């Protein structure tokens, strides 16, 4: 899935959450979205998933303009946030059945159970989501997108809650998705993890895109730009 | 661009001047020229104020409706400013209308407030307007406040005929129709100079209304321009 | 078709959540009965006047319970950003509107079915045979309340002082429904014939149809704003 | 209060309210213009 962003920006009152940005995301790319807190990562993810209305500019997906409203284009977009997008009062299965029908994907109950097994939640099939830990909720989120098969997957800091096997599960899914022509954008602070996975890195600072380069082995330019955001030891004691 | 701005301000000044003139004429005709009413005496002169201001209340609601529809359709900030300006002035005129109605009620019916159809309808209109302004002020996000106010503007306007019907049915059920019954319009059998006074006051109120509206709209546009300039100054 | 299927799934989700948590329906029911007692103490209702005052008091109780239900309507969607989860997908926004209207309607009717006879018992009224037709009038009124109430529950979803703002905006717009329902019920109680109340019922049906279509068309812009 | 009393009361309140509103509106307009002037000139200077 090819995503073109033209002059995209978002302002809240008198503050620019995201300044004018132009980007092209090619199919098969796995893009790392890095930057300090409040740099506009979540705003960009919100704009790319059309949950936020841009102040200026537009997002084109395979040439079609993506705007709010229930367009079929949106069945191809996925957004994984560790905490969210699951009904606490429903069981795991009911959640997946609900989204399965809302997305019109029409997967059979067996496939739903299979998805739950692959993400290691088979045993909790009939449990309420409220009983799950945040790591397990994130796994359920992965299971949900395994089922709905989006072409354009956005992730908002999944590493924070996943354990070892969860990370392997996520990374193998992302690799498979990119190989099959999907596009992935992941906003994260776990730089070491994402650098091994991504094919391209973007750095945002105060709503501005200051770095955009594909990955190459000796990546001095990346480390030079990103050095500024690395933690400088214990600031409180000095 | 500057030339257009000049024309607008000159136009507004002209409108203001003509509004002032017609108001003075209205006062002259209403208070001096027209004879006192045979039945109500001089208190009837409040009618020259009351009927035109009812009209401006409904007129402003109509403009809020138009502004809201245009905004939802084209999402241009200008239409939203038009709607919010019309609503602000609408609240003022509606509140004044109710005030006049009750002051007029005292000598005519002996009570400050009667559940007369006309007064009740204006009161309901005022409540909807207040709801509109409250809604607009209690939503932080700008576009969301604009969209939600537009929705209330449209639904409110669609509701007016239904409110009219239900209040009038309810009214005719209880009290014999009062002097201000809509089907017997006050100007059917009244003195010609009273008619002139009413007409002049009509014109005066319309001009005054559009003058205030254009001024408030201009202020709204300037405030919006100041906001966008401050925003873009950062990234220019 | 697609819209209906999505509406049914969303309604099923809401009913399932309500069945498990039972927050809204229990709160609404007890609030309704509480209001009946409050009315009894607040107004000195002489037995002969009870029938005349019944429609007004009943409908007042229903409107307040309904408002309670409306403030809770999008509660499930507020947890865990589930509203974003729904809006992310290609779901038809109007399906969410229809599902929420029917869910709130279902809750209010459930409460009304219990409070109607309870009112009759508490104020020991006769006219038991009139209850079904009275309930029909209340049904049309509740429909009108839910149709506009759901729309404005979404409008005030992200506003400050949400619970205060909703009744403030909704009640003035509800005046035709209040007048029509109470007058309709009153005429039924007084004359016992249905034909007498028909003009009011026609107004109610008109209100429901107009604002169901208006809500159906406008809801998408409100929820996405 | 005779008939004229009510008339002057009504006219008085209405025109007073409208004049007050006009006054506050003018004041608001002046304040915005004062705020806008530097913004307009600085923008012209820059681009």
Q: Which residue ranges of chain B are poorly predicted, with pLDDT under 50 across at least 5 consecutive positions?
A: 176-184
Helix content of chain B: over 70%
**Beta-strand percent range of chain D:** under 5%
User: Radius of gyration of chain D from the CA trace?
Assistant: 20 Å
* Outline of chain B: flat
The DSSP helix count of chain B reads: 6
Q: Report the mean per-residue pLDDT of chain B as an integer.
A: 85
The run of helices and strands of chain B is HHHHHH
Q: What structural class do you assign from the helix and strand content of chain B? A: mainly alpha
Number of beta-strand segments of chain B? 0
Tally of strands of chain D:
0
Shape of chain D: rod-shaped
Q: Note the total helix count of chain D.
A: 1
| Multimerization state | heterotetramer
Strand percentage of chain B lies at under 5%
Low-confidence stretches of chain D: none
Average pLDDT across residues of chain D?
Answer: 84
Separation of the first and last Cα atoms of chain D: 66 Å
Helix fraction of chain D by DSSP (H/I, runs of at least 4): over 70%
The major pleated sheet of chain D works out as: none
Account of the 3D structure:
The complex is a heterotetramer of chains A (238), B (236), C (225) and D (47). Chain A is an alpha/beta fold. Chain A has helices spanning 41-48, 92-102, 109-118, 134-148, 164-179, 191-197, 220-227, and strands at residues 3-12, 15-25, 30-34, 56-61, 64-66, 77-80, 152-156, 183-187, 200-205, 208-214. Chain A is built from seven helices and ten strands. Chain A is globular and about 50 Å long. Chain B is mainly α and 236 residues long. Helix content of chain B is 81%, strand content 0%. Chain B contains six helices and no strands. In chain B, helix 1 (2-33) runs antiparallel to helix 6, helix 2 packs parallel to helix 6 (192-235) and helix 4 (117-138) packs antiparallel against helix 5. The longest helix of chain B has 44 residues, at 192-235. Chain C has one domain (2-224). The chains are: A alpha/beta (238), B mainly alpha (236), C mainly alpha (225), D mainly alpha (47). Chains in contact: A-B, A-C, B-C, B-D. Chain A binds chain B through residues 11-14, 16, 19-20, 53, and chain B through 141-143, 227, 230-231, 234-235.
Short description:
The complex is a heterotetramer of chains A (238), B (236), C (225) and D (47). Chain C is mostly helical and 225 residues long.
Please render the helix and strand layout as text.
The complex is a heterotetramer of chains A (238), B (236), C (225) and D (47).
Chain A: E1 3-12, E2 15-25, E3 30-34, H1 41-48, E4 56-61, E5 64-66, E6 77-80, H2 92-102, H3 109-118, H4 134-148, E7 152-156, H5 164-179, E8 183-187, H6 191-197, E9 200-205, E10 208-214, H7 220-227
Parallel strand pairs in A: 3-8, 3-9, 6-7, 7-8
Antiparallel strand pairs in A: 1-2, 1-4, 4-5, 9-10
Helix pairs in contact in A: 2-3, 2-4, 3-4
Chain C: H1 2-21, H2 23-42, H3 47-72, H4 75-78, H5 82-88, H6 93-122, H7 131-155, H8 162-173, H9 175-191, H10 198-224
Chain D: H1 3-46
């Amino acid at each position: 899935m090819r995503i073109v962003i033209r002059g995209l920006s978002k302002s809240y009152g008198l503050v620019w959450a995201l300044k004018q940005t132009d980007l092209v995301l090619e199919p098969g790319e796995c893009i790392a979205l890095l930057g300090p807190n409040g740099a506009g990562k979540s705003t960009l993810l919100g704009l790319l998933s059309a949950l936020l209305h841009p102040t200026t500019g537009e997002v084109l997906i395979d040439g079609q303009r993506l705007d709010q409203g229930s367009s079929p284009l949106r069945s191809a977009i996925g957004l994984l946030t560790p905490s969210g997008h699951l009904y606490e009062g429903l069981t795991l299965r009911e959640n997946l059945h609900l989204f399965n029908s809302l997305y019109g994907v029409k997967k059979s109950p067996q496939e739903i159970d299979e998805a739950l097994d692959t993400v290691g939640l088979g045993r909790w099939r009939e449990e309420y989501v409220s009983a799950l830990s945040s790591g397990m909720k994130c796994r359920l989120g992965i299971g949900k997108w395994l089922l709905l098969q989006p072409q354009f997957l956005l992730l908002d800091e999944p590493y924070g809650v996943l354990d070892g096997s969860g990370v392997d599960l996520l990374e193998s899914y992302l690799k498979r998705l990119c190989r099959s022509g999907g596009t992935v954008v992941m906003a994260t602070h776990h730089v070491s993890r994402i650098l091994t996975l991504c094919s391209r890195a973007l750095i945002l600072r105060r709503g501005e895109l200051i770095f955009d380069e594909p990955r190459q082995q000796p990546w001095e330019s990346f480390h030079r730009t990103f050095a500024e955001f690395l933690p400088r030891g214990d600031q409180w004691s000095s | 661009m500057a030339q257009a701005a000049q024309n607008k301000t000159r136009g507004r000044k002209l409108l203001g001047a003509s509004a002032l003139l017609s108001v003075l004429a209205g006062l002259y005709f209403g208070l001096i020229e027209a004879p006192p009413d045979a039945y109500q005496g001089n208190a009837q002169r409040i009618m020259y104020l009351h009927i035109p201001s009812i009209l401006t209340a409904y007129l402003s609601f109509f403009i809020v409706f138009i502004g809201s529809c245009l905004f939802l359709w084209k999402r241009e900030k200008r239409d939203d400013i038009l709607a919010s300006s019309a609503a602000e002035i609408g609240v003022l005129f509606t509140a004044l209308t109710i005030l006049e109605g009750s002051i007029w009620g005292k000598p005519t019916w002996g009570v400050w407030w009667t559940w007369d159809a006309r007064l009740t309808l204006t009161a309901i209109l005022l409540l909807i307007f207040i709801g509109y302004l409250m809604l607009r002020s209690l939503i932080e996000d700008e576009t969301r406040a604009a969209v939600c106010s537009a929705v209330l503007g449209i639904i409110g306007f669609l509701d007016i005929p239904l409110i009219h019907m239900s209040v009038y049915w309810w009214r005719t059920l209880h009290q014999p129709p009062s002097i201000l019954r809509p089907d017997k319009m006050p100007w059917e059998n009244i003195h010609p100079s009273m008619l002139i006074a009413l007409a002049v006051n009509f014109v005066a109120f319309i001009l005054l209304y559009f003058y205030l509206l254009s001024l408030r709209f201009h202020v709204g546009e300037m405030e919006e321009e100041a906001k966008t300039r401050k925003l873009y100054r950062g990234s220019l | 078709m697609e819209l209906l299927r999505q509406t049914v799934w969303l309604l099923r989700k809401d009913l399932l959540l309500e069945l498990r948590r039972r927050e809204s329906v229990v709160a609404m029911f007890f609030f309704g009965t509480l209001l009946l007692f409050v009315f009894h103490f607040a107004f000195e209702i002489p037995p002969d006047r009870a029938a005349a005052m019944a429609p007004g008091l009943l409908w007042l109780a229903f409107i307040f319970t309904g408002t309670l239900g409306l403030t809770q309507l999008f509660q499930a969607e507020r947890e865990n950003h589930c509203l974003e989860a729904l809006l992310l997908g290609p779901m038809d926004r109007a399906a969410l509107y229809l599902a929420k209207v029917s869910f709130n309607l279902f809750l209010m009717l459930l409460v009304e079915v219990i409070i109607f006879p309870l009112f009759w018992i508490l104020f020991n009224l006769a006219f038991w045979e009139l209850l079904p037709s009275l309930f029909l009038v209340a049904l049309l009124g509740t429909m009108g309340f839910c149709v506009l109430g759901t729309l404005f529950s979404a409008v005030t979803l992200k506003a400050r002082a949400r619970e205060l703002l909703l009744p403030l905006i909704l009640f003035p717009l509800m005046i035709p429904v209040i007048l029509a329902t109470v007058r309709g019920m009153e005429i039924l109680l007084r004359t016992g014939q249905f034909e007498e109340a028909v003009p009011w019922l026609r107004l109610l049906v008109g209100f429901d149809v107009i604002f169901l279509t208006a809500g159906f068309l406008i809801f998408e812009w409100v929820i996405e704003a | 209060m005779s008939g004229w009393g009510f008339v002057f009361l009504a006219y008085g309140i209405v025109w007073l309210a409208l004049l007050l509103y006009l006054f506050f509106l003018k004041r608001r307009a002046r304040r915005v213009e004062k705020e806008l002037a530097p913004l307009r000139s600085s923008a012209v200077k820059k681009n």
